[in-house]
Amino acid sequence: MAQIDIRPFQEADQSSVVALWTAVFGYAAAHNDPLEIIRHKLALQRELFFVALHEGIIVGTVMGGYDGHRGWIYSLAVSPSVRRQGIGAALMNHVEQELERLGSPKINLQVVASNSAVVDFYKKLGYATEERISMGKILRPSS
Ligand SMILES: CC(C)(COP(=O)(O)OP(=O)(O)OC[C@H]1O[C@@H](n2cnc3c(N)ncnc32)[C@H](O)[C@@H]1OP(=O)(O)O)[C@@H](O)C(=O)NCCC(=O)NCCS
Asked: Deepest of 13, 42, 73, 91, by most Cβ within 10 A of its Cβ?
């Protein structure tokens, strides 16, 4: 297990987080612009946006959201150079505890079909595949 600290995102983390997400997710869609994601998250439940630091460097992120019915998890990312050292699991454990503390009885998350490899990671943490059809609608173009 790598030695890490997990704490809420701070404004000074922005460029490191954008670099991590760009390397990990690649982001093609305009509504996934990392700066926009950060800007919106800082306006809403920013306390559920966490970074993991290893030797003072940001090596992971996770975002949670609680809508009063379910907790949701987004933007889980660990730097490729430090994977398989428990950082992803630690970030998930951290955000799960915060969502539970807020009263969320259940957590949902989505995995894009092209990323099926990550399913084993979530299963190890107790998540199960649920028979759902995932639907979405873009309400506004990214500003
Ligand atoms: C998914 C991700 C966050 C996992 O981070 P990590 O720090 O490597 O995960 P951990 O070390 O905590 O893994 C815990 C356990 O999950 C399982 N696991 C992790 N990555 C796995 C993989 N690629 N394939 C199969 N099992 C995996 C293993 O059982 C692992 O334990 P082990 O190493 O002792 O065998 C990381 O691979 C990542 O950033 N992926 C790209 C971004 C992504 O897909 N995010 C999720 C979007 S839904």
From this structure: 91
Q: Is 0.85 topped by the overall pTM?
A: yes
Check: CB of residue 60 under 8 Å from CB of residue 78: yes
75: left (phi over 0), alpha (psi -120 to 50) or beta: left
Is there an atom of ligand 1 within 6 Å of 108 CB? no
Q: Report which ligand 1 atom has the smallest distance to the Cα of 25.
A: 42
User: Residue 131: inside a domain, yes or no?
Assistant: no
Residue 69 belongs to domain spanning: 5-124
Whether 138 maps to a domain, the answer reads no
